Queue: 3 jobs
Job 1
Amino acid sequence: MDSIVDTFKRQARELRRQVRSGDDGALSLLRREPALRGLDAPQLTEQLRLRHCLAAVSRRAGLRGWSHLTALLSDKRATDFNALFYPDRRAAHWNIWFATYEEAHAVRVDHGGYLLPYRHQFFVCEGDFIRELGVDPDQPAWGRIGRDWVEPGDYDARHHLLGEWLRAAAGRHQDLGAEHAPAEGGGNQVC
């Protein structure tokens, strides 16, 4: 999983370089960081640290920050994935949303699909949703976890898939402008 950490670090250094060169998209992305809100470009550039950029690239991937990313990578049994599985409000897909795991699990068992968490909710999606986000839904690890991220049959397989998911998330954000940052707020339907 070190390559994932290296990828995020590389993106953070590139983001810092873009901010220092005055890139508006990079500045906008960094202004979402609590310590940098309300600062003009010169102030932000002066106060900018690599830790701000690490937090920003982690948040852009759907996590709460850099420490959240490293905690997920170090704990195969982690349960808090925040918004990792539903970036950029992927509303073009027909996903079924649930307030409880039990409801989501029952639908997944009866109708197939893939059960994923989103903050404190759950949704069942089809393989096309996963494929569009850059992860192969047909790889054997999905079968080993029972296509259930929340209560997987095999935590090692889920950890492998987490690596795939994070690599895909990092790849979706090679361009670091604000248009690639996750949308603020909600708007999801819960069944």
Job 2
Amino acid sequence: MLFPSGNTVTDLLFHEKYRSLIMNNLDCSPPSPFPSLPLSVVDKLVHLASRCEDYSMITFLRLFVAIVLLAAAVQACWAGELTVSRDALERTLKQQLFSGPNGLYYLKGSAQTACSVSAEDPKLTFKQDRIVVQMKTHAKMGRAVGGACVGVAFSFPAQVSLTPQAEGETIGFRDAHLDRVSGNSELNFILSPFLHHQVPSSMKVNAADMLRKALAGSTVSSGYKITLDRLKIHSVLIQGDALVVDVDGDMSIR
């Protein structure tokens, strides 16, 4: 990490050695276009950045906003890391697939049909370099007779594991392995495309959209309109309980 943990935005800005680090580590090509600033302007920007603490702006993104304001750049390129937690990925999957009644996703049939196949309660864990998605699956298979499903009914856990990858400005997932499915070939025929394709595609995270939404209120909080013009993801790695995303991009201030 560029800065030691535990320092607030204000602490970083008020210590000259960190101010120097900020100016020397802005990753731009050609060399830094930032103009020299009069002391009075710097002091005002430091005061402005100190107000960020009222909003607990201690994340990387908001630290970056303070750095850009300090540099007073009209346009700057930057490189750094974004962290996406396991909980955020799990929340994304639930919002995309499991937002229906009772949190169920129907692979076959619906809540109104006698026979159906559904999944619920997805849980994500990280294991080495893979993301493991486990969910409860319920099946009522047979023939509908008089509003009831005449056949077999069973529940079992299904599990798929994935590898994260960079896809432009999106965190994507590939190499899906079906680690656990049922012993029923007919049911597995329904489960396989769901676990192989729908689950990975529903977990995708557009990092650029997330950052743009986070920056949308920058005019109100800082008096400047900060815009993300470009974002490129170079790599995505699992570290502990989060994805660490190596990125660079262009931002502008108006």
Job 3
Amino acid sequence: MLPTGKQKLTQDLKRIEMMVGEMTSYLGSEILFWPTPYAGLTTVTLGSYLMCQNRLLALRSSALNALAQDRLDVAVARFDRLLYYNTEEFKQKIGRELEARLRQWREYVRQLAREESKANCYEAEVESRVIIEDIFQKLSILTCYPEPQIAEEIEQLDFNLRQCWQPGKFIWPVEWQPAYPQAIYWWLYGQPQSRVKARINTVELLENSSFPFTKLAYAGIGRMS
């Protein structure tokens, strides 16, 4: 039997506790996807941590019992303390991850235009887009923004996805829906249509895109998404 949304939140809590425990070593390394010895738990990345933390915080009072809430508070406090003392390392690492997640998402959107079957794995692949959004939100809080070209490419990819988009129900566990308002996370409310190839005419634009991925620019560059 597949785990329910609440059971997956329990897994999320274990994941962020594990990731916080590895975070000092991770931030000091050159490895972007940090392997862990914990069976069944994800590799450590800042984007994965932020996605799980944001989801848990949004659903804290409605989906977590008192003990789980206390565990979440401890993990978040530990992460915030690590971030305070390693801000520059965090900015550099999360900038690299933003580039990696954008590459993943760009390739998937391209594949949607070529292979109708790729729409069947959308529920899993869209995690990259969610992580991109969560990274942007965190960088905004830190007044540290990617250069405009990155936001422009995200907007272009969103435009391309909308060309084959069929609005519908929330595609992740229904218990998670309050954490993902449709006004922001519209790509979680529906699916790409099956006849994608006939609907997307922008493959050449994507193939020819050459947005540079440069270092993060600090305060002064506003988010463009």
